[in-house]
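Bit of a strange request maybe. I'm writing a small parser for structure token strings and I need a real example to test against, not something I typed by hand. Could someone generate the tokens for this chain?
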Amino acid sequence: MVSFQYAFRDEFLEKSSQLDKLKKDKIKNTKEFILWAETKIEELHQWLKSYDFENNQDEIEFFKEIKPGIISKLIFEKEVLRIETNAPSGKIQIRKFYETELRKIYGYSQNNNKFYQYYRSGSEVFDIMYFTRASKKDTLETECIQINFDPRLSTFYDYKLAKIIAFDELVKYLEGQIKALKSKSRHRDSHYKSKLHWSGTKVDLVELIYALHCQKVINHGNIEIKEIASELSRMLNIDINDNLYRTFTDIKNRKNPNSKFMQSLADNFQKMLIEENSL
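Reply from user aminoacidic:
Good idea to test on real output. This should exercise your parser:
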């Protein structure tokens, strides 16, 4: 029966590898893998309920290497499914969403810093405590999810290790997605050429950018000044990013009126309305 765990692992990893090679219908294929994986893991659990390892070393190998390697694949795919089905539309918004997910992962590692350090260091000192079922666990170091764990199926720390492995892969996935978005943006910028040209001064445009941001008329105000400046610079064929904040400081330090361009816009628009109404 010892060969069961190795045959099971090989089958599971092969199925996961096949999923990685599929490019189309990623969400659909991920759902199918999760359903298959959960059924397969139930087979592993049934085997574990009646199997006794010959010694601690065999049990440690299973709960430190084999089982976390399997469960991590399921955790990873579930996280990918959750992320992709909740991702917003728009390149800037989705990139921020991915970056937020990365910060969550880093937060998990900080909250489990002691065990992270143990795993990363390659230490084996506490393997019997962490990766055998018979050992007494320190409940102060564990998560509440342990309450629902069947002690025949897990040491609990094998699940923590599976999450670490899964999150390592998730970091690579998210960083890859962010890199791809940035690459597409650069590719778009290199081929896009607007026919519009800003014929006012750079200072005038900075006034306009800050006014639009202050009025919250772009993305309901949920956008950085720098992003508005980048988009308008590209659209109007003028580069103001490097001097954006310095120019705004100069505007603030003007003697009255501070907003010469915005006042001019309002005056000229009002003048046009009066002229149109007089016709």
